[in-house]
Amino acid sequence: MPEPAVVPPVPPAAPVPQRVFITGALGFIGGTLARRYREAGAEVRGVDRVAAPEHGVVAGDVSEPGAWQQHAAGCDLVVHTAAVVSNAASDELSWRMNVLATRRVLDAARDGGAQRLVHFSSVRAFSDLGFPDGVEESWPVRTDGNAYVDTKVASEQVALQAHAVGEVPVTVIRPGDVYGPRSRPWTILPVEYIKARRFLLPAMGRGVFSPVYVDTLVDGVVLAAGLPAGAGQVFTLSDGVAVSCREFFGHYTRMLGVRGPLCLPTPVAVALAGAVGAVARARGEETEAGRASALYLARRGTYSIAKARRVLGYAPAIDLTEGMRRTEAWLREAGHLD
């Protein structure tokens, strides 16, 4: 797929590591980080499900020990983005790829002499069951029975425990709802579901969405990874401005030239989504349009980025209007709006 044309420079306040190792290096966020660090002059290596030797990426399963771990040796910074990001994955797969894999990456960072490991968690570590409006990083994480939520909570424990005992300095990132070129959950899938007339919103579309354009997220990650103040810390990174789900996904219906999105009361939307998920499971298919996703889009609370602003100097520079302009250009170029 085409890559975004504009790659902003590394913020000058963040020192650039000489060598960076990224898990999920060919993915949406991992690939964007890799491009950013290469533009800044760093040597970038990585691991993904398939190899890309021209980009220094080897193939490997990060939930298993292997030669990919030696590929991280000598890297100053290790960034762990690889994960199963799904509401449809099994408990076993989610644990293996989101929790056990975190331990394997920590092993590689420790043995390779890394000076920092950045671990990607999620704002969903706060749970989908509710949290205070403007929730801050000090609020207790909470498991809620969803495999993705629960394994993100557990992965944070694994990473911060390694930091506490001195294996490697760790920074945990909790991204908001990351959209932009190549985003599967918040760009590609919504467009596909809208085109197929299978997209609906609970809470009459008034659920809270916390967007962050991928380049804005990378700005924050570079700061958190490069500044000494980021070690041992957890940071929530989003635009810091919540919008309604109706407003956010309305950008995609506008791009497609269709009405919508369809907004329903939460009980009706959750029931319909649950039925869709049950039918898909009966057919042996996976779908993200299930009950868990509907509940997530009915959230009422927002996430504070005050800590990232205060400690890192994080300042989101790409608002939703500009982010969607860039996203639309990529969607059209990649053929998703045909």
UniProtKB/TrEMBL annotation:
Superkingdom as given in the UniProt entry: Bacteria
Domain NAD-dependent epimerase/dehydratase: 20-226
InterPro entries named among the record's database cross-references: Epimerase_deHydtase, NAD(P)-bd_dom_sf, NAD(P)-dependent_oxidoreduct
PANTHER family, per the entry: NAD(P)-BINDING DOMAIN-CONTAINING PROTEIN-RELATED, PROTEIN YEEZ
Designated name of the protein: NAD(P)-dependent oxidoreductase
